[in-house]
Amino acid sequence: MGISTDPALLDVELPRTLIESPSVSTFLPEEEASICPLLSSNTNGSTTPMTFSHPLTPCIDNDNDNDSNTSANLCNEDGKVETSSSSGSSSGIGMSVPDETSTTLFNKHSYKHLQNNNTSAQDSNGHGPNGNLPLGKDTPSFVSWNWPLIRKCTFFVFMSSLLAMCAVVVAMIVTLPKTCNPKTMWYRGSVFYEIFPASFQDSDNDGIGDLRGIVQRSDYLKSLGVSAVRLNSIFPSPHYPDDFKNITSLTDVSKVLGTVEDVQQLSQALHLRNMSLVLDLPLFPYLKELGKSDGASAVKVLASTTLNVSDGMTTTTTTTPRPVITTNLITQALQHWIKFGVDGFYIKGLEEFVELEDIDYHMAEWKDILGYSRVLIISEAVLEKVKEPQRSLLLRHVDLVDVHLNVFNGAKDLEERINNVLASEIAPADPGVWVQWSIAGVDSPRLTRNGVNTNFTLTATLMQLMLPGTPNIFYGDEIGLQAAKDQLNEHNETKHLHHLSTMQWPENSTQQFTNRETLPWLPNAPTANFDYLPIVSRMIGLRDRSPSIYKNAICKTESVLPNTAIRRSEDDILIVERLYPRRNSFASISNFGQKRLTLDMSSNFYSGVVMLHDSSDKIYFSDFQIGPAESIIVRLDK
């Protein structure tokens, strides 16, 4: 088949629009382009294709909205035009291709429309914060929030809360008690320290001790470990301290000792050191009779309590009977001293009154004045004088009953005496009345006296601190203080007071009882052993942290079980065993005889560890050795 080569046919003139490349021409006539939805018309009537920008395509901000063609051409300033052709094709469409991928990813204009520049949600032209993404009316408001700042604040609050919780946990761990022991009232199971004020410390160098002197020695009392200081008579008398029992007032202080303000200062000093102040209140012979009590009639104090119930408000009324307070010298004295910070009273001399018909009502009044947190103490001799059922009514209002032990009668008498007390109406119970154990005091001879070894005082004191109840240590017994000794008979007029010898302090102490130029009101005690002081202090500390010792019984829901066993041997050995559930058990073995003994006690105990000494020695009771006038405290092996 032949092709015509006629020049007339070859000279056909084609339209210019078919010859030019589509990249430089339009595919549609101007008339048709104006109605195409994908094309836009300029104001001069020319048609320009719309520019489409992919969200991940780098773009320059359209800062000049009037020149859209220029912005479209500058979309990729580093692009190159490449014409693709192949055999049989002449399309030649121009494409913009970046030189490198990093040019697109790290260009400073890349993804700019995704940033939050703290601008308004829409500008005047209806665009979004970056002028790229328009925000409609239905767009949530949180889209325009300052999220970087919110994230920083949230992180700060989270870290602060985490640190605060860690601090709270550390503080709780630090403040946790070292032991989890059952608690009792401050006067139950703790140790009292009885002081005759005129013989403890002289602060004004007149030879007689005073209240300010006790304040000066408050750190010593704290180091000893006692919980309360009990003062003997501080009240005025015609010749105090020689006739301290013949008081003339229950609301004043002897001028030799100080003022009522000094009592308050002493109370504050003791409270600051977690100790309490107890006063002896001697009624006889200052009062000849107690008189009648108005407490026999009770007034009902009404207390209304409102309870919320489902159908409305219901009011219930409870009644609490309280005694009528009789206005007399005793109730006035109690109310007076409470104002000055006194924490309890030992009512002394009740057993001397002939008529005790209303004693239970008097006790109810006195305890009502003191309240629950203050202690009321009476002597065991009062119970011996009162008959049942009055005795049971009286004991309802008493906190401590003072029981005196005569340690000079030997182990046999001590065993019977202690066991009888523990089996009487003041037997250990919680709640209930507790026993206050005394082995010396203002009304009895001092333990260390002529012909008595100072070791005997330490032996008796350690045994006393092992008993269930509240031990009462007389001042000076912790160092084996001896009674005053008048070898030249120069103080015969005060011979009945020589057991109230002035307190001795170590030689290296900066302050003695009084200055060197002043003679004390009693002759100095010739002996005192300060090596006993740390032993007694350790024993008090052991008692304070051991429920087996400071608790007087094992109290269960339906029963009260004893936790004390008192035994003796034929050789004047007294054994006090103390125990408590899930706690260490202890035993004190006291030799009140004058011989060194070797005993086989394996029928009672097997082995244990000796306490109160620097070294914890292991002992076996099959070959137990103890010296004369010695007490050994042992923690028993389980």
UniProtKB/TrEMBL annotation:
Ranges of biased composition (kind: Low complexity): 84-96, 125-135
Keywords assigned by UniProt, alphabetized: Membrane, Signal, Transmembrane, Transmembrane helix
GO terms classed as biological process: carbohydrate metabolic process
SUPFAM superfamilies, per the entry: (Trans)glycosidases
RNA-binding is among the record's keywords: no
One Pfam family of this chain: Alpha-amylase
KW Transmembrane (keyword) present: yes
Domain Glycosyl hydrolase family 13 catalytic: start-end pairs: 194-543
Listed transmembrane segments: 155-176
Region named Disordered: 70-98, 116-135
PANTHER family for this protein: ALPHA-AMYLASE FAMILY MEMBER, MALTASE 1-LIKE PROTEIN
Name by which UniProt lists this protein: Alpha amylase
Species, as recorded: Musca domestica (House fly)
